[in-house]
Amino acid sequence: MFNAGDIVKVLIPNVVNYGYDYRLTVAAGLGDFVSVSVMGRKYIGVVYGIGDSGLDASRIKNINGVLPGHLSVSDLQWIKKMSDWTLMAPGAVLRLIVNVPDAFSPPKTEQLYSFDFSTSARMTDSRQAVADAFASNDNDPMSASDIQNIAHVSGAVVRTMIKNNILQPTALQQVVTRFDNLNYSDAGNVTLNPQQQAAADAIGAAIEQGGFSVNLLDGITGSGKTQVYFDSAWRAYSRGRSVLLMMPEIALTAQFMSRFQRRFGAPPIVWHSNLTAARRRDIWRGVLRGEIRMVVGTRSALFLPWQDLGLIVVDEEHDTSYKQEDMGNYHARDMAVLRAKIAGFPVVLASATPSAETLQNIALGRYGRLRLTSRYGGATLPTISTIDLRESRPESYKAPDDTDATDAPDIAGNLSPALCDAIGETLAAGRQVMLFINRRGFAPIVQCKKCGYVAGCPDCSVGMTYHKRLGKLLCHMCGRTAPMPGTCPDCGGAISTRGAGLEKIAQEVAVKFPGARTALVSSDTIMSRQALERLVHKMEDGEIDIVIGTQILAKGHHFPNLTLVGVVDADMGLFGTDFRAAEHTFQQLFQVAGRAGRGEFPGRVLMQTYQPDHPVLTAICAGDRDTFMARDMDARRAAKMPPFGQLIALIIEGEKEASLQQYCAALAAAAPNIAGARIMGPIAAQVYQVRSWYRMRFLVAGDARAQLQPAVAHWLAKVKTPANIRVKIDVGPQNFM
Ligand SMILES: [Zn+2]
Ligand SMILES: [Zn+2]
Questions:
Q1: CA of 281 to the centre of ligand 2 (A)
Q2: CB neighbour class for 488 (10 Å; exposed up to 12, middle 13-18, buried from 19)
Q3: How much distance in Å is there from the Cα of 487 to the middle of ligand 1?
Q4: Whole-angstrom Cα distance, residue 381 to residue 375?
Q5: How far does residue 237's CA lie from ligand 2's centre (Å)?
Q6: What is the CA(474)–ligand 1 centre distance, in A?
Q7: DSSP 8-state code for residue 302
């Protein structure tokens, strides 16, 4: 505890802040939130330690006041350790925590709108997006800015909807979120099978014993992992502790919410990126006050101001969406484990396809493993096999009437006769089919066959993808669109497309199975969870025969009547330059395979490939995850790649090529010798230009014990960064573009 008049260090939520000294005007403790001014601007800061700037007392400003709430000392240690690990400034970590505007101000009086769901107005895509924004906030009234931000629509759309009375103004009011029920109870309506019970008891013992531990709940899809970690959540919650259930955004499904509600008697408090400002603020405050003790959320929920956190569950722990790459680089799973280690509480990781990092921690005895090997309710695993495309060659098909000039009259097919036969049989039996192709749009390459011209993005060094539904070319790096050229801009020759995306597969399905009802699922067609839910309902109600989708489809959903999954291009992803390519391909295909036959009817999975003997595919066919991962990890051990070594990537970006090269040369000249490590680069990034900025990379590779972070921090501090250069530090990079 500090007294009035003491000089303390206050951490400011700013990406470059390491703390400034202030004088207390009243007593305050470590971790207390305080209001301070920096250059005339007010900030919410945190008392972070004893003042140590050595500044003359006359130059030290007073704090504006102490705010009602605090972080624990272990939270402060976590901020420090996370900063040391990720090389973000501690202020950047605090900014992840203090991420709601007006966190301590009284609610503002605002003009809000409610959505008239009884409207007879035509539901355009943008109106549907607005309706979905309301639905994802329990139909609370929303401000115009919330509607724009969450539905991703323009102000003009909102104004028109107000004029048409689809959005109706409510009386001016202070927005305060009402939570239905913050006191959960265990409905006791779930009986665990013996394996689930054993796992639940093992985690339960860790919770009762207290202290840090990590257990992997290692179970095939459909084995009932959720009910096991619900049991763990209840054990921690009922002992008065707070509980975070963390999952990828896509897994926050209505199916999940209703299971939670059935088990705990009330819907969960949900934290994700599509909440209104008021709801974010009220959940944040509720957590800070200790009134909200259980939250289901995406990776950013880890940064809520938790009070007495007693358990974190990381569902789908292998999922790449836990890695944050834009605003600071961190891995939410690893930072959750770090938080638990410092504060001394258990973590549960859950996955059907655990990451290599987690498997290595198990091998080293740091994490425990609890296996669930049987499918809940006795459903059987699908049979998985390959179709050799060299033998069963896809037949070309006649272009449908609406085909534009870019297609030849005979179009090369992508669906082999063997897969088509299986689709036909499945449809004839009245069951459903899923076709998986992880590529959006119609065709990834738009070219002139005469002169070799390829349509590329003018701002990024990548080609543009033809999206037929949009009628445009789209850059998947920066989102820029361009019209589809009628003829080659260089020679006037005919333009054609090459390669197949989702929309092209849909075209082939429409020609080869004209009676089938199909649906397309990708981030282009499914913009919100509500849109995904509508699709799920259509599948359940039997309104769809064939669903064609990207990886959005690979997770979480359970369609009892789906008995055939066709993987259109199983080779895609096998030859990435990234050492995780095989692992990620395996995880993705394994997840997709898990969609089939989860109901009473057995399912089958057919993967089209030119390389049926590839170890990734033979391992999936055999359902032999452990052998596959063991071989993959042997290769990584030999190459000293993670988890057997460490990597830190530096991505250096500049608007001007010359100054970028100059800076990189200066960095290379100053590169240190690090024991047990080497520095590679600079080399041009795989995608050299994004949004017209040029990009170079360094890679620091070290053995497991090398001390990379302090050496990298010292290195970067030696060379002054010019104003027109951005340096991104990526510790444990997942992306090598
Ligand atoms: Zn040309
Ligand atoms: Zn671009």
A1: 35
A2: buried
A3: 8
A4: 8
A5: 47
A6: 20
A7: G
Q: Hey, CA dihedral for 580, 583, 586, 588, is it positive or negative?
A: negative
Q: Which amino acid is at 584?
A: H
**What's the average model confidence in pLDDT over 195-219?**
96
Q: How many angstroms does the Cα of residue 655 sit away from the middle of ligand 2?
A: 15
Amino acid identity for residue 736 in this structure: F
Distance 448 CA to ligand 1 centre (A): 5
* 368, 112 contact by CB (below 8 A): no
Closest CA to 231 of 268, 187, 172: 187
Closest CA to 312 of 191, 212, 219: 212
Structure-block tokens of residue 453: 């011209």
With 0-12 / 13-18 / 19 or more C-beta atoms within 10 angstroms meaning exposed / middle / buried, residue 649 is buried
For ligand 1, the distance from its centroid to the CA atom of residue 497, given in whole angstroms, is 13
Closest-lying ligand to the alpha carbon of 493?
Answer: 1
Mean pLDDT of 305-313: 97
Distance, CA of 282 to CA of 70 (rounded, Å): 16
Residue 361: which H helix or E strand, with range?
helix 356-363
Distance of CA 693 from the midpoint of ligand 2 (Å): 11
Residue 604, pLDDT > 80, answer: yes
* pTM: predicted TM-score of the whole model, two decimal places: 0.90
- The torsion angles phi and psi of 147, rounded to 5 degrees, stand at -60, -45
Please give the share of the chain, as a percent, with pLDDT higher than 70.
Answer: 96
- Tokens for 502? 């989702």
Please give the distance, rounded to the nearest whole angstrom, from the Cα atom of residue 478 to the centre of ligand 1: 25
Beta bridge partners of 575: none
C-alpha 359/C-alpha 357 separation (Å) is 6
Q: How far is the CA of 440 from the centre of ligand 1 (A)?
A: 25
Strands 294-297 and 242-246: parallel
Task: Write the pLDDT tens digit of every residue in 377-413.
Answer: 555 668 889 999 999 999 999 877 665 545 556 889 9
With the CA atoms of 712, 714, 718 and 719 taken in that order, what torsion angle do they form, in degrees rounded to the nearest 10?
30
- Burial, 171: exposed, middle or buried (Cβ in 10 Å; 0-12, 13-18, 19+)? exposed
Q: Give the CA distances from residue 113 to residues 135, 170, 535, in Å, rounded to whole numbers and listed in that order.
A: 13, 6, 27
CA–centroid distance, residue 452 to ligand 1 (Å): 6
Q: Which residues pair with 433 in a beta bridge?
A: 546, 564
Which ligand sits closest to the CA of 474? 2
The answer on pLDDT for 633 being more than 60 is: yes
In this structure, which ligand is nearest to the CA of 446? 1
The ligand placed nearest to the CA atom of residue 451 is 1
With H, G, I as helix, E, B as strand and everything else as coil, classify residue 93: helix
